[in-house]
Amino acid sequence: MTAAKRALIRNAEASPLLCSMTGFGEARLQKDETSFRVEIRAVNNRFLKISIRCNEDLPAAAENEIENLVRKYIRRGTVQVALFLDRQPRPGDYRINTQVLLGYYRQVEAAALDAGLTPPSGIEPFLVLPGIVSELVDPSAYVAEILPSLLTVIAQALEQLQAMRIREGHAMAADMRATCLRIYSLSEEVEQRAPMVVENYRQRLQERMTRLLGEAAEVLKPEDILKEAGLFAERADISEEIVRLRSHVQQFLSVLESPGEEPPGRRLEFLTQEMFREINTMGAKANDAEISRCVVDMKTQVERLREMVQNVE
Questions:
Q1: Is 230:274 a contact under the CB 8 Å cutoff?
Q2: What's the rounded Cα separation, in Å, for the pair 291 and 194?
């Protein structure tokens, strides 16, 4: 095993710090007369998109505070925040408009007497009519009052969501490390095979010329064959592509080890694109069945990386 590969394996065994973009968190809280329930879902997105819905009208200031809290935990993805508030009514929250109630009652009583019917004996049927009961609570004032508790329960749901995203990120990082090492090993097979390709081409060229020219092949100079083989070697040289591919693999593992301040998903996506480009060039240059097999396998591995990277924050 080469020193470069040993270093690569050491880096690959470092603790992964990736975070998945998908997850779910839920939290509940009972505070005074209000029950809080929060559900937060996160799915893939190239950018950060936050949607908030609540069974109460939220003022813009409250939505801004909730968004700012979500941004402290999540940097990329589509985040859906569902808020459910259940407030127990208090005696002073409602008022019965007695004038409107009496107006309804008198009209119904008069209509019943005119029709020869018995007027209603209670007021219960009238309480559901428009204008009878008025709500005195200002919804915006109510939300402002409970906002600290609401932010507390949202933070608890975000903690659950984050824990789930980190667990999934650890699992993905382990899979991606193994995939990167597989790509590196395949590049070593290609590197070992590459010198044989030129020699095989020289031998095939010599045999083909001998078969075509017959006895006249004796006039062929060895240096002519070597010159043609040298031209082929120059066209088929993939040493630069191997070096660049390994560099991309090493950078990929470095990002897994230390994602940095910015979301690492975009950098990892770029590196997978560059890996695929170098592998494609290898396949186009190398005129060899064994190298082609390795190229197909490497493309499969990079495609696995690309699918996983699409879920990395």
A1: no
A2: 8
For 163-195, write each residue's pLDDT tens digit. 999 999 999 999 999 999 999 999 998 888 877
Name residues whose C-beta falls within 8 Å of residue 308's C-beta, 6 or more positions apart in sequence. 172, 175, 176
pLDDT for 257-296, tens place per residue?
A: 876 667 888 899 999 999 999 998 888 877 778 888 999 9
Dihedral pair phi/psi, residue 282, rounded to 5°:
-55, -45
pLDDT tens for each residue of 264-275: 888 999 999 999
Assigned token pair, 143: 């939300």
C-alpha distances in Å from residue 276, one per residue of 63, 238, 249, 285, 303: 43, 14, 11, 14, 8
Q: Is the dihedral of CA 139, 144, 148, 152 positive or negative?
A: positive
pTM summary value: 0.70
Under the banding of pLDDT at 50, 70 and 90, the label for residue 60 is confident
pLDDT digits (tens, 9 = 90+) for 146-162: 899 999 999 999 999 99
The neighbour count for residue 285, using CB atoms within 10 Å, is: 17
Which H/E stretch holds residue 258? Answer: none
Q: Is-contact 149 36, C-beta < 8 A?
A: yes
For domain 17-90+138-166, give its CATH number from 3.20.20.70, 3.40.50.720, 3.30.230.10, 3.40.50.2000: 3.30.230.10
Buried b (16+ CB within 10 A) or exposed e, 290-311: ebeebbebbbebbebbeebbeb
Cβ burial of 69 (10 Å; 0-12, 13-18, 19+) is middle
Please give the helix or strand (H or E) that residue 267 lies within, else none. helix 265-285
Residue extents of the structural domains in the chain: 17-90+138-166, 98-131, 168-309
